[in-house]
Prior knowledge:
single chain; mainly alpha; two-stranded parallel ribbon; binds 4-nitrophenyl phosphate
Amino acid sequence: MVCLGNICRSPLAEAIVREHFAKNGIHARIDSCGTSGWHEGEKPDTRAIHVAHDRGIDLSTLRSRPFRHQDFDAFDVIFAMDRSNYNDLLEMAKTPEHREKIHLFLHFAGRDFGDDVPDPYYGNLADFYRVYDLLDRAANLIVLGFQREAPTGE
Ligand code: 4NP
C-alpha cells in the first residue's frame, strides 16, 4: 500500500486490508510505505490513529518508511492510493515485471470507486472517516477477488 507520506492513507489501507484478509483466512504479507521519506520513522497521523481506533483497529505500532526498490521484488502486488503515487511508482520501475505489479487500489476494487483515495492530510476528521470508509468498502471487494485466487494455506 503506497501513498505519499505513509502516515494517512496507506497505513489505514495496510491495517484495513490486513483485517479483511485475516477475517477471510487469507495469508499474505501486507505492508505500506510512502513515495516520499518526509515522515520516515513517524507514527501515522493522529487523526488516522483516532479514526482507526474508533473502528476497532490499532495503527499506533506502524511507522512510516519510504518505498524501496527492493519492494518491487518483495511484493506481488503494489497498490497506489492515487494517480500521483501510481505515476511515481511507474517512474521507479525498471522492468515490465515491476510495472505490471503496480495498480491503483480503487481500480482493483471495481469501476464504481473512481481513481484516487483523496488525501485527507490537509482536511479534517470527517475527511479521515470518509477515507476510512472508502478504503474499507474497497478492501472488502479486493479481498473477495484474492479469495478466488489465493491459496488459503490449508
Ligand atoms: P498520505 O498523506 O500520503 O496519505 O500519508 C500525506 C501526508 C503528509 C503529506 C502529504 C500527504 N505531507 O505533505 O507531509
